[in-house]
Amino acid sequence: MKVLIVDDEEELVETLVARLRRRQFTPVGATNGPEALEILSSETFDVVLVDVKMPGMSGLELLKEIKARSPHQQVVMLTGHGSAQHAEEGLQLGAFAYLMKPVKLPVLIEILTNATNHQEGSEQ
User: Is the whole-model pTM more than 0.90?
Assistant: First the structure.
């Protein structure tokens, strides 16, 4: 499974990339929205994991842009500063799920797998 991880915390991105790679995922990291969009313009991913609060382009703005470019792209939102309003807005904009940091790796893997399975089912 190919996953793009977008978070302004570089250390978190590096950690998630390493941990997912050990579990047979193909993770790629980005530390901001414009970098993620550049990567998405040349590569495809099963799931994009996006932090909600990032400087410059927020995670919700990135979600809107991803969905405008590729409506079937599965996006999972991740935040350490969650609010019901952000979760509701993200889900209304088409996010598959909304997770709070710190997320346990088994939970993250389950959500990424479910998002991929959901995408495969919706494309048939």
Answer: yes
Provide the pLDDT for residue 89: 87
Hey, is 121 helix, strand or coil?
helix
Q: Which of 3, 7, 18 is nearest to 81 (CA)?
A: 7
By the 8 A CB rule, do 86 and 100 touch?
no
Residues 6+ apart with CB under 8 A from 116: 1, 46, 47, 74
* Backbone torsion region of residue 22, taken as left when φ is above 0, otherwise alpha when ψ lies between -120 and 50, otherwise beta: alpha
For the chain, list the domains and their CATH numbers: 2-117 (3.40.50.2300)
- What is the Cα–Cα distance from 71 to 66, expressed in whole angstroms? 7
Q: Quick: pLDDT tens for 26-72.
A: 999 999 999 999 999 999 999 999 999 899 999 999 999 999 999 99
Concatenating the DSSP letter of every residue in 3-50 gives EEEE-S-HHHHHHHHHHHHTTT-EEEEESSHHHHHHHHHH---SEEEE
